[in-house]
Write the structure tokens for this entry.
Amino acid sequence: MESHNQVGEHRQPNYVGVFVALTVLTAIEVGVTYVPVPRIPVLVPLAIAKAALVVLFYMHLKFDRRVFTLIFLIGVLMGFSLIVSLIALFGPPLTDVPQ
């Protein structure tokens, strides 16, 4: 009897399909800049979707152990909290109250 280690086995990802999806999302982002719609509510989800595709497939987090995903997400959370903190400290005031 042969014993195969199936933990490390996974299908070959479709990199061409991911590339096409990223290209389509980029084309949509460029198209949004020419249409008179609110840009941030449209562009932010598109950017998150593109980042997720890159992280999952090109950085291989979809096929790696969950601990690597956790380490990556901790770094993303720290970076996000740093950006929010800096915006809160040095960004424009949230109200128009004169000081």
